[in-house]
């Protein structure tokens, strides 16, 4: 169910940003480097932009990748779509992918349905 919850949350967030989000030109100012449990290195670009109300925003993407292409290197200009009420909810166009959220939703659904089916069969055959 954790996979399902994570995926649905991400898809709902992406849908809300498509409906009410505001676009802005941002610049990649650095990369937050995080290490996975197995030693893999992930780079999360940090985008900086000025919101419509004049606030300066600087946030790290929730998605990290093992390799950063030149289009997302430090100093690159990108387009972000953000929630004007909560600018920390944003996506970098071309970097953040809803396919990951969709994958988690599908896997979570399959695992949940499989578990419920096994439990029901177990209860019915006792």
Summarize this structure as a short list of keywords or feature phrases.
126 residues; alpha+beta; 5-stranded antiparallel beta sheet; 34% strand
Any overview of this molecule?
By secondary structure, this protein is α+β, with helices and mostly antiparallel strands. Helix content is 37%, strand content 34%. The protein has helices spanning 2-20, 98-124; strands at residues 22-35, 41-50, 56-60, 77-83, 86-92. A hairpin with a 5-residue loop joins β2 (41-50) and β3 (56-60). The chain is elongated, with a radius of gyration of 18 Å.
Which sequence of SSEs, written as H and E, runs from N to C? Answer: HEEEEEH
Q: Identify low-pLDDT runs.
A: none
Radius of gyration, in Å, reads 18 Å
Structural class: alpha+beta
Mean pLDDT: 88
Bin the helical content.
25-40%
Instruction: Note the total helix count.
Output: 2
Side-by-side strand order of the widest sheet: 3-2-1-4-5
Name the overall outline.
elongated
Strand content: 25-35%
State the distance separating the first and last CA atoms.
Answer: 25 Å
């Amino acid at each position: 169910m954790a996979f399902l919850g994570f995926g649905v949350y991400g898809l709902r967030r992406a849908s809300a940003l498509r409906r009410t989000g505001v676009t802005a030109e941002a610049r990649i100012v650095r990369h937050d480097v995080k290490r996975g449990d197995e030693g893999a290195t992930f780079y999360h670009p940090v985008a900086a932009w000025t919101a419509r109300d004049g606030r300066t925003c600087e946030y790290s993407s929730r998605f990290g990748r093992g390799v950063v292409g030149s289009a997302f290197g430090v100093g690159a200009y990108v387009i972000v779509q953000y929630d004007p009420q909560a600018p920390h909810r944003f996506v970098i166009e071309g970097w953040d992918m809803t396919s990951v959220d969709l994958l988690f939703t599908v896997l979570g659904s399959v695992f949940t349905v499989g578990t419920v089916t096994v439990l029901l069969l177990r209860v019915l055959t006792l």
